[in-house]
Write a structure and sequence with these properties.
The chain is an all-alpha fold. It has one helix at residues 2-78. It has 1 helix and no strands. The longest helix has 77 residues, at 2-78. Residues 23-78 form a coiled coil.
């Protein structure tokens, strides 16, 4: 009976080791996905910053164009 219990415990230990190994693999995958998600969040933030910068630059260029057009109209009116 003792040998049966010992054998049964050894089988349980082996199964626990197997499950622990699987859990470690799952944790590694989760960590990998977390890292990838952080990279995507960073890139998304960088893209949003670049988009805002481009919009600001476009608005500045539109203001400059408006000033040039106004000066051009003034010059044409003087001629």
């Amino acid at each position: 009976m003792f040998l049966e219990l010992k054998s049964s415990l050894a089988g349980i230990d082996a199964k626990l080791d197997h499950v622990t190994g699987q859990l470690d693999q799952i944790k590694a995958r989760v960590d990998d996905h977390d890292s990838r998600f952080e990279v995507l969040e960073t890139r998304t933030s960088e893209m949003e910053d670049a988009r805002r910068g481009a919009r600001d630059h476009l608005a500045q260029m539109e203001r400059i164009l408006e000033v040039i057009q106004n000066k051009n109209e003034d010059l044409e009116a003087r001629l």
